[in-house]
């Protein structure tokens, strides 16, 4: 009886072992099967290339190209000393440290682990070669000449240290060091502009040029890229060449291109509305109202502030401009990390009325009147606009209507472009609609510094401008700029109107965090891929 029980227990034990073994076997096979399926899925779904486009190709060399598409694409091939991130915050690139010795001298320490795509070492000689080429060889032929035209001396201290002197103080000069660095050795003993090697020039970026023909430029991944965390997922980028932008639109619509950058507001008329996504981003083109602060009426900050609160910018953009424009309150409204929400001042007619009444203005017979020096002064003015600028003329008409509803009669004076520039330079106006291409640096001296457009002066503002130009500490900058904005809102020597926008349009097969900005539409390209 005892032996039977032992045999019975043994049989059960063996059966359990067999069952466990079978379960492990089948589970293992199932996991391996799933793993194979996943790998197959990845290899068939994720494509190893991206497809971009250039219309009206001239040359791939970024120092001499005048093609906007090429300037954009060059940022993934060539690199600058410093770059700007998605918030337009300065980031070191080929430079690893910049010290401001005094107002006119900068010492730059370079990375010592960087190689050009042909395997040659990057050194300070390449920086000097690039800057000498731009300043002395290319001059105004290069879009980067204005960045460094003020450089008066450039000295190589050692292989990874360089000294730059400028002939005048330039706030945030570091932001001008965003030009691409070229290889001295690559062009050794050759004229940069005449060399047949120029279109294929090597850089230090994420991709290098492998070939160029009449139809396509092939870029390949830089396997030895110095920033190992940013080596791209895709292996190749095919840049298709087209005679004009119309051909680019057709190719995108047919699925031959993954992403395009467009400024036209009616892009849907060319490529339809299905199968792609649009990302709008703000450009550098900004228009604003400037009050002449030396004018008898506009010398009063209360009047300026009240008038700035009257205009409904959302309505103005929607009715007078439409797509391709967006309301804007200040020049730094391009995605800058220094922009503050306190600048987002909404239209407020009640507050505008209260400000004027507190300042001694009376609203009677549908107009505002104040006794100044014993005489009744009516609140009215003339606004200057360039007769060649249809957008600004339309905006001026809209502004006149909004001020009329508030009891402020405004006359529009249209002048020729030549006369407009003369008035602007002499500051011979009451109010003017002006515009500019905003710089990439956070410098705001154009608006508040010496000899500014509005004849505006404020001692605290002047001190703040000096303080922000002498620091790189982020927290200090944010604090000081917040105060600059507070003064700007309170005294309103200007008020923003709108800025132009562009679009990145990409096929839905493209995967990645697309965060274009005015500096680089290919932010985060190392994480892009297509399915």
Counting structural domains, the number is 3
Distance between the termini: 70 Å
Shape: globular
Question: What's the rounded overall pLDDT mean?
Answer: 91
Total helices: the number is 14
Fraction of residues in helix: 25-40%
Architecture per CATH nomenclature, i.e. the level-2 architecture of the largest domain: Roll
The CATH H-level homologous superfamily of the largest domain: Dipeptide-binding Protein, Domain 3
Main sheet, how many strands, which sense, barrel?
A: 7 strands, mixed
Helical/strand content category? alpha+beta
For the record, the CATH class of the largest domain is Alpha Beta
What name does CATH use for the topology of the largest domain? Dipeptide-binding Protein, domain 3
- Strand proportion: 25-35%
Query: What are the low-pLDDT stretches, counting only 5+ consecutive residues below 50?
Result: 21-44
Number of strands: 22
- The value of Rg in angstroms is 31 Å
Task: List key phrases describing it.
seven-stranded mixed beta sheet, D-Maltodextrin-Binding Protein, domain 2, Dipeptide-binding Protein, domain 3, 22 strands, 14 helices, 531 residues, alpha+beta, Dipeptide-binding Protein, domain 1, four-stranded mixed beta sheet, 25% strand
Write up what this structure looks like.
The chain is an alpha+beta fold and 531 residues long. The chain has three domains: 49-77 and 205-275 and 508-531, 3-Layer(aba) Sandwich (D-Maltodextrin-Binding Protein, domain 2), CATH 3.40.190.10; 79-184, Dipeptide-binding Protein, domain 1 (Alpha-Beta Complex); 283-501, Dipeptide-binding Protein, domain 3 (Roll), CATH 3.10.105.10. It is built from 14 helices and 22 strands. The strands form six sheets. Strands 11, 12, 13, 17, 18, 19 and 20 form a seven-stranded mixed beta sheet that branches. Strand 4 (95-102) and strand 5 (105-110) form a beta hairpin. Helix 7 packs antiparallel against helix 9 (349-358) and helix 13 runs antiparallel to helix 14 (474-491). The chain starts with a helix and ends with a strand. Mean pLDDT is 91; it is low at 21-44.
